[in-house]
Amino acid sequence: MPIYSSIGITASVGRSGQNRAQDVVAVQQRLNDLMHSPRIPLVVDGQSGPKTRGMIKDFQKSVLGFRWPDARVDPAAKTIIALNDPSSEGIWAQMSIPEFPPDPGPQPEEDDEKGKGGAITKQDVIDSTIDKIKATQSITSQEETYYRQILEDIWKANKGAYTDGGAGLTVEQREKLITIGLNGFKIVKMSLTFAAAGSAAATVFGYMSMLAPFLMVYGFYRALGHAMDSGARVYGGISMAYYTTYWVFGGMKPVSCPTFVKRNEEAPEQWRTDPDKLETHWRKGQKDARRGLEEYCKSVAAKTGTTQAEAEAVFKAALRIGKPSMLARALLTDISKKARAEGDHNVANVLKLFADELIYPK
């Protein structure tokens, strides 16, 4: 019969699911609404027995084309979406009842598995990771879009270890990548102002929102606050911004100190700093940035139960959404605002000038 509303479940239904009675009832009734003869309607009793699991399996095989149906419906995953899709009724009605071999126990979840020609592809891994995230918590469409971009970066960083002549991944390799992606999500949630980043990714505002927790706690503001004069604060801040950009993007040398020595010489007298002091501030800024980044990633790793290397990789991926110049500009702009808030307007003005006239050669 036609369906006119969507169902929702609070937890998994079917094999190895939580099988809360109200959720099982919702799935049983929806399966009955969508099926046609010769399929026999289920008894809507809130019990996830073999007939209910078998019908879920039938639906997954017939409507979704799963090679390894798992007889389970998870919140926000592909099976529940299909159960809420009116077009599923017509598809299911045209399919014969599949014959399943004796249940061999838990099998790979087809939601995560199916790719072109049966191969496990990048898109399969990304979709599976997102589905597993949605099964445990709610994320907005903006957050999902943003995190999918990060998963693309995670894939690029790891796929070299998981290639098989273009034949796709093995199930074990897929599970490894999914685990990396799920850990990455924990790291992003811990380290970034996620909602702001999701709504403003690849903008200066988005970067500043992401970096705020890091800047406030680890190395940057703390180091600048200990600077002895305005020159130290200006060039130390610039060095921090450029070193961080180099650290995130890799393979690109940060702007050398001589570039800023030259600009310093050409600046009005009131803005100049002794070249030797400038060199000292520049080196100190890079050292402070490196220490701050290491401390930050170590802290995030400890809080998320991941390794420091994994935290570093995900943090870099999260900040590689835009261009190198955008990241450096965001850092300089935020440091400038911090200096202005503390009443150091001269330092704030110079940092803002460098942010607006950014030079970042590749």
UniProtKB/TrEMBL annotation:
InterPro entries assigned to the protein according to its UniProt record, in alphabetical order: Peptidoglycan-bd-like, PGBDSf
A matching Pfam family: PG_binding_1
Keywords annotated in UniProt: Membrane, Transmembrane, Transmembrane helix
Membrane-traversing stretches: 192-220, 232-249
UniProt entry tagged with the keyword Transcription regulation: no
Source organism superkingdom: Eukaryota
Entry annotated with the keyword Transmembrane: yes
Residue ranges constituting the Peptidoglycan binding-like domain according to the UniProt record: 21-62
Region annotation Disordered: where it falls in the sequence: 94-118
Identification of the protein by name: Peptidoglycan binding-like domain-containing protein
